[in-house]
Design brief:
Layout: E1 2-6, H1 11-22, E2 26-31, H2 38-48, E3 52-56, E4 71-74, H3 81-84, H4 88-109, E5 112-118, H5 145-164, E6 169-174, E7 177-178, H6 189-199, E8 203-206, E9 212-214, E10 216-217, H7 218-229, E11 237-239, E12 244-246, H8 247-257, E13 264-267, H9 282-288, H10 296-313
Parallel strand pairs: 1-2, 1-4, 2-3, 4-5, 5-6, 6-11, 7-10, 8-13
Antiparallel strand pairs: 9-12
Length: 314
């Protein structure tokens, strides 16, 4: 298979590129390195040579010509609030215009197209776990809106192109994902907690820490992406781990696994911070035959050494 991965130098993109290469495929990577890093790809370039072909490219611009492709995985977009809130209009454009450019590439190359949407389309949900049929509770004017509504626009574009332009479009809604390779500065809960625990610093939780998240290990998520890309199901599919944990519970588990003396410190809740996040993955189980295999504790044990190594290098 000849595949294109946009955002392939980012955290999840790198895991996907690595898996595709290990499975014997040729992989083109587009990334503007706004939040990704060429450092993530260099070991893969050394190991797999010309089977990985990287171009620095902004998806706001029409994609380069690739000839025939089999599959496009469109991941390109800042995924952390600290990044997507920095330039909200650009985030909105990346989600919508970037996806329109991915659709054009799919039409020109004959490729199937998978886009990674997000659990953020459910907003601050009034239903839990969230099913794909739930329409959500999204603020259209809050500080998360450019990302949340932008992803909704991306879904609408792919659905329309699948209905009216004959592309094979697939949509997955990704819930919180973690693992080795996460940027230590992206502001997400796993990097923040692990780094603070390793330094013996307080772990900052927002409110009383009772808000929940469902955390999926990167290897499980990549398996879900591959299964969704190969499926014949055009409707959105949730990909995530339904093992719902409170933020406080997560913080205490990380303190335990790092053997840290850190304490918890409560901070004010950010605007529009979702109180619950948990996927209903019945559709993924029934249609894709997919569900997460790696427990939270097992995944954290695989992730902590990565952050330990980063601190050693510093």
């Amino acid at each position: 298979m000849e595949a294109l991965v946009t955002g392939g130098a980012g955290f999840l993109g790198t895991h996907l590129v690595k898996r595709l290469l290990k499975d014997g495929h040729t992989v083109h990577v587009l990334d503007n390195l706004q939040t990704g890093s060429l450092h993530n790809l260099q070991p893969l370039i050394q190991e797999f040579g010309d089977r990985i072909k990287y171009q620095q490219h902004d998806v706001l611009q029409p994609f380069p010509e690739f000839g025939n492709l089999d599959q496009i995985f469109h991941l390109a977009c800042p995924a952390s609030p600290i990044h997507y809130q920095k330039d909200e209009l650009n985030t909105l454009k990346v989600n919508v215009i970037g996806t329109l450019n991915a659709i054009e590439c799919a039409k020109n190359s004959g490729a199937r197209l998978l886009i990674t949407s997000t659990s953020e389309v459910y907003g601050d949900p009034l239903e839990s776990p969230q099913k794909e049929t739930y329409r959500g509770n999204v603020s259209t004017t809050g500080i998360r809106a450019a990302y949340d509504v932008g992803k909704m626009g991306a879904e609408a574009a792919v659905a329309a192109a699948t209905r009216q332009q004959g592309i094979q479009g697939r949509i997955v809604r990704i819930f919180n994902t973690y693992g080795p390779g996460m940027s230590p500065k992206d502001g997400r809960v796993i990097p923040n907690f692990i780094q603070a625990a390793l330094k013996g610093e307080p772990l900052e939780i927002y409110g009383d820490g009772s808000q929940t998240r469902s955390l999926c290990f990167a290897d499980d998520m990549v398996e879900g992406l591959l299964k969704a890309a190969a499926s014949d199901h055009p409707e959105p599919i949730n990909l995530g781990n339904p093992d719902e944990r409170t933020i406080k519970e997560l913080a205490l588990l990380i303190i335990k696994l790092t053997d840290s003396k850190s304490k918890l410190v409560e901070k004010p809740l950010p605007q529009d911070d979702p109180k619950q996040r948990c996927p209903n993955i019945t559709r993924a189980k029934e249609i894709l035959g997919w569900q997460p295999r790696i427990s939270l504790e097992e995944g954290l044990r695989a992730t902590i050494p990565y952050f330990e190594a980063l601190q050693t290098r510093v």
